[in-house]
Amino acid sequence: MPNSSRTGLPHPKKLCLVTALLISLGQLSMEDVPTMVLCKPKLLPLKSVTLEKLEKMQRDAQETIRQQEIAVKE
């Protein structure tokens, strides 16, 4: 394992990923330790543009119906 330039110690990521196990017979085997890989979070809109358009159309239609009902009552 390559040493870091400042501390002279092995790189900590290398130590986490691979663990050496010394078996009683003196044989050396390597074990790969799986680690969680986190990805960059993705920002999603709370409401899609299409949903906002549909809601606006529905509000407009309800307002038109209300105006027609008021006109009929008069």
Description:
The chain is built from two helices and two strands; from the N terminus they run H-E-E-H. The chain is an alpha+beta fold and 74 residues long. The chain has two domains: 1-33, no CATH class; 45-74. Strand 1 and strand 2 form a beta hairpin. The longest helix has 25 residues, at 49-73.
Poorly predicted runs are: 1-5
Topology, number of strands: 2
Which range does the strand content fall in? 5-15%
- Major β-sheet, in short? 2 strands, antiparallel
Q: Helical percent range?
A: 40-55%
Give me the number of helical elements: 2
Question: In whole angstroms, how far apart are the ends?
Answer: 89 Å
Mean pLDDT: 74
Structural class: alpha+beta
Which strand order spans the largest sheet, edge to edge or round the barrel? Answer: 1-2
Please summarize what this structure is.
The chain has 74 residues and is an alpha+beta fold. It is 42% helix and 14% strand.
Topology overview:
Blueprint: H1 12-17, E1 18-22, E2 28-32, H2 49-73
Antiparallel strand pairs: 1-2
Pfam families: BBIP10
Keywords: Signal
Protein name: BBSome-interacting protein 1
What would the keywords be for this entry?
single chain; 74 residues; alpha+beta; two-stranded antiparallel ribbon; 2 helices; 42% helix; disordered N terminus
